[in-house]
Amino acid sequence: MLTIREYARPQTMDEAMTLLKSNKKSQVLGGGMLMLKLGDKTIDLAVDLVDLGLDYIKPIENAVEIGAMATFRSIETDPYLKNCFSGMWSDAMKYIVGVQFRNLATLGATAYSKYAFSDPNTALLALDAELVMYGDRRMAFNEFLAKRKRRFDILEKIVIKNPETTKAAFDSIRRSKGDFAVINAAASVCDGQYRISVGIRPRVAKLATGAMAYLNENGLTPETAKTAAKMAADELDFATNLRASGEYRKAVAPALIERVLLKLL
Ligand SMILES: Cc1cc2nc3c(=O)[nH]c(=O)nc-3n(C[C@H](O)[C@H](O)[C@H](O)COP(=O)(O)OP(=O)(O)OC[C@H]3O[C@@H](n4cnc5c(N)ncnc54)[C@H](O)[C@@H]3O)c2cc1C
Known about the structure:
It is a single chain. The chain is of the alpha+beta class. It has three domains: 2-46, no CATH class; 57-161, 2-Layer Sandwich (Uridine Diphospho-n-acetylenolpyruvylglucosamine Reductase, domain 3); 167-262, 2-Layer Sandwich (Enolase-like, domain 1). Helix content is 34%, strand content 26%. The strands form three sheets. A five-stranded antiparallel β-sheet has the order 4-5-8-6-7. The chain is globular, with a radius of gyration of 19 Å. The protein starts with a strand and ends with a helix. The model has no long low-confidence stretch (mean pLDDT 96). It binds flavin-adenine dinucleotide. Residues 27-37, 49, 68, 96-97, 104-106, 108-110, 112-113, 115, 117-120, 154-155, 180-181 line the site of flavin-adenine dinucleotide.
């Protein structure tokens, strides 16, 4: 059973941080969906970010800002995002559980929690997203994934550059629609610079830097896509969990990565 002893709805980021630090067993609340998955848990103080106005998707000069409380569904259906990144965001979100769930789950929670089973995190990594934490501290998502998190912190927004000039693609392999993916992959290209990320290996999403360097040097054709996909699968490590074995993931990875790369042509 989940027990929340106290519940707060701060009106400013400063108030949210003060509340969070006021109790060792406090926790930020995004959409609250992950609580569904937990067994017994007690939270002394739940700090709900719902009143902070962080549920936006805002084009700025050469970038788009996505507030931490923007839901999966708002990102999937946003008219501006549909015309950016080759419509990748819709593909990254559409198979996650169901619409009611996606109406609540937030991008900020997924990115901040570095969920290894995440679809959006693989997309964020391929797009070289930047996280903006409380106090305007900025960090590349790739760097954030490699770092230890602070005990008390709040992700405010995510910034993604070049929304209108970046081509991107996302795909996943699932045993059934609505289930967690067995593996996913995303790729992007902007100004001739390629990025490939592979998630649910089943570890947290990772860049295939060797394959990226190969494409930056040789460009993308159907032939180089095949070679780069094979290189990416060779350089990344895959392991076993209850959804699939490491061998299975490694075997299907080249086809999945090639598929996302071909969408960039
Ligand atoms: C049954 C089930 C199936 C799922 N399937 C998939 C799937 O197929 N693909 C996929 O990508 N995801 C999947 N998810 C994960 C889901 O999409 C969300 O990532 C998850 O529910 C968290 O989102 P939330 O907004 O509900 O976060 P919450 O439950 O509110 O928070 C999760 C954690 O993030 C912290 N947090 C929240 N917001 C912030 C913030 N702004 N700053 C700092 N910390 C914060 C919270 O303190 C908490 O520790 C699944 C989840 C469930 C329960």
